[in-house]
Each structure stands twice: as structure tokens, then as C-alpha cells.
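Researcher: Please predict.
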Amino acid sequence: MNADKWIHPTKFTGNWPDWAGYAWLDWSKEAQCYHPGEDYNKGSGDDDCGQTVNTCAQGIVFHTSKKSTGYGNLIIIKHTLGYNLKRFIKETYGIETDTLYSLYAHLQTIMCKVGEEVDIDKTIATVGKTGTTYCHLHFEIYSLWKDLVSASYRFYPVGWSKEKIKENWLPAYQFIESTKNIESYEQFLGKSKEYWLQVEKDRENLMAQVGKEDQEFLKIKKELTEKIETLETENRQLKEKSANWTNDQEKIERVHQTEVLKLQGIITTKENKITTLENRTTEILAEKTKDYDVNEAIVILLGAIKRKVGIK
């Protein structure tokens, strides 16, 4: 919903800026600050207590809260701007923005909730005096850019210069008066209404094309992401198999080494036994040589020596 039409949020008396309450950029002694909004009063004192407060344009309820000090009971509505109004605000006030925010303070009752879509001139509250002395509606229109981007909902520009306030707030009364018939202008910024309608149409077509390209990009991105995930899964599985193969190979090598060591132990034991037997045989032969003649003893001794040294 584009906020192309704007109206004043409640009844008031007098001629701006000579009315009860503070007008835009009046010096407020109580707050020691230049007034960033407009104080709408039906009359003096509490004459407008309970008077209806309506939305100044189409939008979405952005914030509501209740408090007994400062802004008191508060509503903030976010408004999306159409192309013509965005150009008007940029050329007139030097503020480049897609959205404006309207603020309604010192309310008696709140009759809307956050996230609710509201049409222009919808009753959202009643005038009260929460956070102030006399009943009135404190009303602001501002843009969340520059120094207001990170400010709280209840921020008040104490210590700010007029010039700095002008960079963030619009003169609410003058702005609404100047935009009442903006759609009926035959000429807007030196261009015909048909020109701006075509510009808006071209912009919408461009946004649609961008949206289509975004969808195609997201489709390709999704396919690539799925392929990458598949490859990562396969790579992980291969690493796991490789690790398992390495473990199996290490197990086989350990078993092989164990068996080799066992066989080497058996061979060494048998060789030791053979050596012991050969030594014993030599000893026995040496003892028995007296029973043989010289020739027989020499033959037997040589045979033993050959077997010991491995001569065939």
C-alpha cells in the first residue's frame, strides 16, 4: 500500500503556526529543544480530551507503547511512498527515502496493534495528556535515515540545531497541505502526469524483471549447492574408506611381522639345538677315538668337522 494521499490526523483551531501548542521548530522551554513536530489542539486546556486520532495516510502500525512520561502513550506508523511522492520529498526537502514514519503522542487510548495494516483516516486512538500537562496530539513525520537510523522509538532531538532537525523531520502541517492534491497536478517537477505514470510503469517492469532474474539465479544457486553437497559427501566417504583401508593394511602388516618373528624364533631355537647336538657328537667321538684305529678315527672326525662347518 503506497501512502500517496495524506490528511491531518485530528481537528485543530487557529492558523498554522499561530495555534495553541508548539509548531514545527518552535523553541520549547520545557524540553530545551526545537520542536520536531506539531501540537494539534482543538481548543485550550483539556477541551480536546478524547477527540479521535486518525491515520494521516495508508501504512502499517510499526510501534505502540504506553508510558506516563515523555511522549506518553505512543503510536508510530510506517508509510511506503509512491514514486511521485518520493521525488517530491527529495526535491522539496532534500530527503531521499522510500518510507516515512508518522508519530502520534500523549494519547489517551490506543486502538490498534503492531503489524496491523491501516487505511488513511482510520481511527487509531483518542487525544489525551499522558506524559504532558494539557490534552493535545503531538504529531511528527520523519524519515529513518542519517542520525535517526539507530535512535530509539522515543528519541527527542535535544541539543540538535534546526538544520539537523530539517535533515530528518518533515514540517508535518506544511507537508500534508502541500501533498493534498499531488495526484491531480498536471505538471510535476516540470513533467506531465503521463510521463510520471510511464516512469512508474517502467520501474515496475524493471523490478519484475529483476525479480525474475533473482529467481533464475536462486534456481542455479540451488542446483550448484546440491552438487557441491553431493561431492562433499562422496569426498567424505572416500576419506573414510581410505582410512579403513589404511587401518586394515596396518593390521595385516602387524600380523605378518608377528608371524615372521615367531618363525625366526623357531628357526633360532632349532639352530641352537642342532649346534648343541653337533658339539655333543664331537665330544662323544673324541671320547671314542681310542676304540678305533687311527684311520677310522680320522675318517669319523673329519665327517664330524664337515657337518659342523657345512662342507658337503
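Model: Residues 27-184 form a domain with the Glucose Permease (Domain IIA) fold (CATH 2.70.70.10).
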